[in-house]
Amino acid sequence: MPLRYIGEITDPIHKNIKFTLVERELIDTFIFQRLRRIRQLAGAHLVYPGALHSRFEHSIGSMFLAGLAGQTLLEKGYLDSDDMIQNLRISALLHDIGHGPFSHLFEEVLKECTTHSHEKLGERIILDTLITDILQRNGYNPITISSLSFGKHKTRFLNEIISGGLSVDLMDYLPRDSYFSGTEYGKVDYHRIINSLEVTNSKKLGISRSALYSYESMLISRYQMFKSVYFHKTVRSGEVMLLNAMKCLNSVLNLTDLSSLDSFFELHDEKVLGMLCDVRDPSLGPKEISYVNLAKDYKKRELLKCIYEYFSLSRQRQELRPDEAIKNTGEHLKSDKKKRIFDAQVSKLKSIIGKYQASGEQVFLDISSAPSIPLAPKKEEVSSIMVVDKKDEYEKSFDQIPLIYVISGYLDMIRVYTNKENRKFYETIIKDSE
């Protein structure tokens, strides 16, 4: 039975997004509405003023694309009924429900202080809140929704619709982030890619051969967005300030006390920034006070300066299979050398900066790494795409797609940030160590 839509939302990326009754009930909850106050790109608005969009819009956009993907797979006979389309739409709608303030920055604080992640929080929210009640009342299984949202469903290709290299998550955030940042890098022909979706005999998600160029273009767009927006040195400056302020002041503010979800639901970007700036605990030492001032500087956009930068693109971190090792020995050795150089740089800078940072100096080492090709739902690396051509199917390795192969691997980055007053001092120290 086709989905019964009861209204629509106007969206700058997808134009008109229709919604069903259960979707409206979920969107109208205070839990989902909270996503309006969590920016998709944390500190990017300090460089790109229009990048103020939130997890709220992205989640609704992902829901829309999940519906398109589900419809395509239903028409091609890979799904049994419209019910799975609704399951996919709900799962995409809720895939970011566990994100905290400043999105991935809060995730780093969680990892340092707890065993939680936004996925674990998302599972908890779907399985043990009023979201659970709404799903059950409308005839949907919260366990199924949770498994689809976070890559744990028994059917692999269904997981890959929500996250991974052919996911609706990727196909929404690239054009959305590009649009609101005002850049031109995130152009994605997602209609072409979604219409070409296929499922292989081994239940993997793939595409028809005719859409390979669109797929290639999407991955290149992602790589460009990482270099120009997500890893922009001034964007990262603001994020380094927020991250370190949250880490240092967490013991005072209890940001990661998740014994009750009620306190978590109260947290959002502006509230946490206000909390960081307004800490007035008389027991604070000079170090903690300096981090309160760091948060205040962020709020005023008085940002740290980047005084050192090192980029490296290395190949896959995983061990090569024997057949791959024979074929790619030269590339593997080159990549291994790059990784050793990168690790040596990190070690050297930690030894230089560590003693100053331990004494309370505001100098920060920012080490970031991102896979240039999106990871699969279970976080394993991806080095190929499944291609279906008429009645034939095959796995096409990225080394057979030159433009993708050039950018495949990990984008590794090291930067050193400090305040204006100490800029010359640390520049000299780092230069003298080379």
TrEMBL record:
Protein name from the UniProt record: HD domain protein
GO molecular function: dGTPase activity
Positions of the HD/PDEase domain: 51-183
Source organism superkingdom: Archaea
GO biological process: dGTP catabolic process
Pfam name, any one: HD_assoc_2
Classification lineage: Archaea, Nitrososphaerota, Nitrososphaeria, Nitrososphaerales, Nitrososphaeraceae
